[in-house]
Specification:
heterodimer; A: 383 residues; Rossmann fold; OB fold (Dihydrolipoamide Acetyltransferase, E2P); 2 domains; six-stranded mixed β-sheet; five-stranded antiparallel β-sheet; B: 282 residues; mainly alpha; 12 helices; 2 strands; transmembrane helix (chain B); transmembrane (chain B); MetI-like (chain B)
Chain lengths: 383, 282
């Protein structure tokens, strides 16, 4: 069919894309490159603009400003039906009047392709539901509908596959299973996947690269490990997993390390893990990086003394402690239950220590609570 | 036993009503349709002679009105569908917060009597209305052409009167369409027209079937529009039945015509619903 830009292939490039509805700016001056063949996740809380970004890539929304290009082809003004891009919608949006076979064949028929049976059957095999070809969507379970929605998009071999919270409606167990399966399918077909989710665990399980979005902007972009180990902002530190952020001052230097003063106690911080702009910082340590020890035990690395256990939660693989520090802040400590040491009890005095390489630092003027108030399992809809 | 009995108990009032006010009159009508005038009796006195030829006579005599009834009903249904579909679509998808107001406006004419509304159309299309002078000045119709007492006026009146019966079921089924399926269609390489043909229209078929039936059936049996807006040349079957019954007191012919009309509608509707059900009409 003429007019279909199906030949366009390559990296997806968004340049200064802005979308505003009246006074409300949903997406603000967003630029990013999604390399061809990658599994890319847009992660953020409800209303952060991730779905709007996805819809602009699909062509279902028009950017107020900015450009969207696929390879060397500018697709900013291209109609959705002319883009070599397919979407797996949040609630699947299967065609209720068509059989599963016809649902999957829909895109192929629209492009006027002949002999499509083979392609449709292969797509059904890929999602392991070949026996459902003649059913109607309403006769399928949520998980099955999800797979059909995926097959209906993938069968077209688009340059780009967009997934809008595709697993949001599934129960936890099925969701985990589909995450692994989606990742496998992505490797199998080699299509660029852009996955929108509010679930940080989902994003980290599947994506090669994650862009964390907040209030219409990208906070940080990188591999899951990069984002988790060395977050740039308090929002990322808190939204991806949990973080202990402690106010401190850089008080000196020792080779490649800063010496940091945390309420009178000195710790060390690798210079290249600091995102601070001046001497005032927020020192960050992930709860599972902490070791907890009785006052008399000697430990190495960075040590904070004078803690008192406030709360103990035993959750099987680990024990979670809330430790009250002398300056009044409660720190979270996750201890693996693998050392045979008896758990600490509430009220006990403890020291906290960790390997200096795990310390990261954020700008001192950041809100240490940013990103914590949004529960990652909140409602799915953005609009 | 009580648990099985309750639903049947609940059926009794409705069934009783239908028995007394539907089945018995139908039976009575069937009886009347085969009667012949009583020898030496007064006008309006008939006796049962089981004369089935009454039907052949009635149909043959009024074949023109039969054809006209179905033709007018068909044109009315098509016009109403053409007007109501975009209207229902706009209310369902673009109505926003004015949806309910617009729906009330669709049924607002019901607050005025059916007869009054039909008479109003006589004025709209009459010499004193604005339509005729405008069309004449635009030279769309000649100076001597009038719009009243014409097939045009009858069909316009029927289209207008039955429009809400078309609009409401259409709205109900279009409103149920998930707009994301339309987005999905666009996403899967279908342009606007193809999306309408392949997704919107098939999904709204229940409304199309219900709306066309609710329009066609009463339109085929209607006589008010033809009586008020038409002329002797636009007589429909309803008008014949009315005059046979009330003026000529020819009960058997009126009954035979009623039965034939009912049977004809039933057959047409059955064929139509079958076709629509198997999506052959799509």
């Amino acid at each position: 069919m003429t007019g279909v830009a199906s030949s366009a292939r390559g990296d997806l490039k968004l340049t200064s894309v802005t979308k505003s509805y009246g006074d409300f700016i949903a997406v603000n001056d967003l630029s990013l490159v999604i390399p061809e063949g990658s599994f890319f996740a847009l992660l953020g809380p409800s209303g952060c603009g991730k779905t709007t970004t996805l819809r602009m890539i699909a062509g279902l929304e028009e950017p107020t400003h900015g450009k969207i290009a696929l390879g060397s082809t500018d697709i900013t003004d291209t109609k959705p039906y002319q883009r070599p891009i397919n979407t797996v919608f949040q609630n699947y949006a299967l065609f209720p009047h068509l059989t599963i076979f016809e649902n999957i064949a829909f895109g192929l028929r629209r492009r006027g392709l002949k002999d499509i049976d083979d392609a449709v059957n292969k797509a059904l095999d890929l999602v392991e539901l070949p026996h459902l070809a003649q059913r109607k969507p309403t006769q399928l379970s949520g998980g099955q509908q999800q797979r059909i929605a995926l097959a209906r998009a993938i069968v077209n071999r688009p340059a780009l596959l967009l997934l809008d919270e595709p697993l949001g409606a599934l129960d936890l167990k099925l969701r985990r299973q589909m995450q692994i399966e989606l990742k496998w399918i992505q490797r199998e077909v080699g299509i660029t996947f852009v996955h929108v989710t509010h679930d940080q665990e989902e994003a980290m399980t599947m994506a090669d690269t994650i862009a964390v979005m907040n209030e219409g902007e990208i906070e940080q972009m990188g591999s899951p490990a990069e984002l988790y180990d060395n977050p740039k902002t308090a929002f990322v530190a808190n939204f991806l997993g949990q973080s202990n952020l402690i106010k401190g001052t850089i008080s000196g230097s020792d080779g490649d390390n800063h010496i940091v003063d945390l309420f009178g106690q000195k710790i060390s911080l690798q210079k290249n893990r600091s995102h601070a702009v001046d001497n005032s910082i927020l020192a960050g340590i992930r709860p599972e990086k902490f070791r907890i020890s009785r006052l008399e035990t000697s430990t190495s690395g960075n040590i904070l003394t004078g803690g008192k256990v406030e709360d103990v939660s035993y959750i099987g693989v680990s024990t979670q402690y809330q430790v009250l520090m002398p300056w009044g802040q409660e720190l979270m400590v996750f201890e693996q239950n693998d050392d045979g040491v008896a758990p600490f009890s509430v009220g006990e005095g403890v020291n906290i220590s960790w390997e200096p390489i795990f310390t990261f630092a954020l700008r001192g003027d950041e809100d240490a609570e940013a990103g914590t108030e949004v529960s990652p399992d909140e409602d799915l809809d953005e609009e | 036993m009580r648990k099985i009995g309750t639903p049947y108990l609940l059926l009794i009032p409705g069934m009783g009503f239908l028995l007394i006010f539907f089945l018995l009159p139908i039976f009575n009508l069937a009886q009347t349709s085969t009667q012949t005038p009583k020898d030496g009796g007064d006008t309006g006195q008939y006796e049962q002679t089981f004369r089935l030829a009454n039907y052949a006579d009635a149909i043959f005599e009024n074949r023109e009105q039969f054809g006209r009834s179905f033709l007018y009903a068909l044109i009315t249904t098509i016009l109403a569908l053409a007007i109501a579909y975009p209207l229902a679509y706009a209310i369902a998808f673009k109505g926003g917060r004015f949806k309910n107001v617009m729906l009330v406006l669709v049924i607002a004419p019901f607050f005025v009597s059916f007869l009054l509304r039909t008479i109003a159309w006589k004025q709209i299309l009459g010499e004193e209305g604005f339509v005729v002078p405008v069309l004449r000045s635009l030279q769309i119709i000649s100076e001597s052409t009038t719009l009243t007492s014409s097939p045009f006026a009858v069909v316009m009146g029927m289209t207008y009167n039955f429009l809400p019966f078309m609009t409401l079921p259409l709205y109900a089924s279009i409103d149920r369409i998930d707009p994301r399926t339309l987005e999905a269609s666009g996403d899967l390489y279908a342009n606007g027209f193809t999306t309408f043909r392949k997704v919107t229209l098939p999904l709204s078929m229940p409304g199309v079937v219900a709306g066309t039936l609710l329009t066609f059936i009463p339109a085929a049996g209607d006589y008010v529009n033809a009586a008020i807006l038409g002329s002797p040349q636009t007589k429909m079957l309803g008008n014949v039945i009315e005059s046979r019954y009330f003026r000529i007191v020819d009960y058997p012919t009126a009954a035979a015509l009623s039965f034939t009309l009912m049977a004809a509608i039933l057959i047409l509707v059955t064929i139509y619903v079958r076709k629509a059900g198997t999506e052959e009409l799509v």
